[in-house]
Amino acid sequence: DWILHNDEFIREEELNISKEDRGYQFGDGIYEVIRVYEGNLFTAEEHIDRFYESAEKIKVIIPYTKDVFHKLMYDLVEMNEIENGQVYVQLTRGAYTRQHQFPSDTAPVLIAYPKKLERPLELMETGVHAKFIEDIRWLRCDIKSLNLLGNILAKQEAYEAGCFEAILHRGEVVTEGSSSNMYGLKNGVLYTHPASNLILNGITRRVILNLCADLGIEVQELAFTKTQALEMDEFFMSSTTTEVMPIVQIDGQQIGEGVPGELTRKLQEAFEANLKLTVKS
Ligand code: PMP
After folding, report:
1. Contacts for 63-72 with beta carbons within 8 Å, 24 or more apart?
2. C-alpha to C-alpha distance for 34 and 278, rounded to whole angstroms
3. Which reactions does this protein catalyse (predicted)?
4. In whole numbers, what is the pLDDT of the chain averaged over residues?
5. Residue 46: pLDDT above 70?
6. Alpha helices in the chain (DSSP H)
7. Closest CA to 3 of 85, 65, 89, 99
8. ipTM of predicted assembly, 2 dp
9. Rounded-to-integer distance, Cα 169 and Cα 182, Å
């Protein structure tokens, strides 16, 4: 398999990362996951824009233009003959003698590699269970940071409880999932946490909000509570790899009829139509 290392394609065996890479020591870096459908990068521009925004927020300069970066991602997918899968890309501040403050003269380190991945079609059909977990993360969740301890501890706790995802909440307020955004539907209106510093503004979230506009589903970007979540008619989560994923049970309590709801289904269909369109163009 080919890996992208800065602007070079190399074999995995050739990859050499310093013991003092700041991503490794401090989680001092950012990442993106871009979905590949039929050899095409889905919503690539949006992911690339967010990658550059995250880099700017942590004051790392990406040494390529967005166009060059896009081409590198595309070549990586092609060279590895990925039809359906994803590209993982991360950028760290680089390697330097361990110190907390930024080194003045070190080059950022970029790594990207793809993997094959099927769509989770069965789970999208049946829906999944989720668990409420206190959101103990920092206050810059808008940055797609490599620091994911808060996220992985929550995901692990959910998994150990037999759940697919953790629904994070700060006090009573639901923010997002450990690796997804969260949505509730009540009386035909879709509610989701506003894109503030408390959540990652998912690319899938943006696609979904656009689809709601197309379908005439009213959207309220308003935070809702745990109690309100349990009283929603329908509930679902979204991410690059899970698309529109129905949540049919939270903390053992059934949501609505305990099966994926009607509007959730409509959004799944619209999402599918949208990705087919994108793939063809
Ligand atoms: N929130 C968090 C914390 C995430 O890790 C992710 C997935 N990367 C998302 C939301 C969903 O974002 P996207 O739709 O861009 O995958």
Report:
1. 63/6, 63/107, 63/108, 64/7, 68/7, 70/41, 70/44, 70/45, 72/4, 72/7, 72/112
2. 14
3. D-alanine + 2-oxoglutarate = D-glutamate + pyruvate
4. 97
5. yes
6. 22-26, 44-57, 66-79, 121-126, 149-160, 203-215, 226-230, 262-280
7. 89
8. 0.99
9. 11
> Within a 13 Å sphere around the CA of 78, how many CA atoms are in the beta-carbon half?
6
Does the active-site annotation cover 57? no
- Domains in the chain, start-ordered, CATH in brackets? 2-116 (3.30.470.10), 121-280 (3.20.10.10)
Please tell me the distance between residue 105's alpha carbon and the centre of ligand 1 in angstroms. Answer: 32
Which candidate in 144, 186, 266, 276 is catalytic? 144
Q: How many angstroms separate the CA atoms of 270 and 281, rounded?
A: 17
Place of tokens 């899968």: 85
Q: What is the pTM of this model?
A: 0.97
- The tokens for 191 are 């509610």
Residues ≥6 apart with Cβ < 8 Å to 194: 221, 222, 223
CA-CA distance, 159 to 214, in Å (whole number)?
A: 35
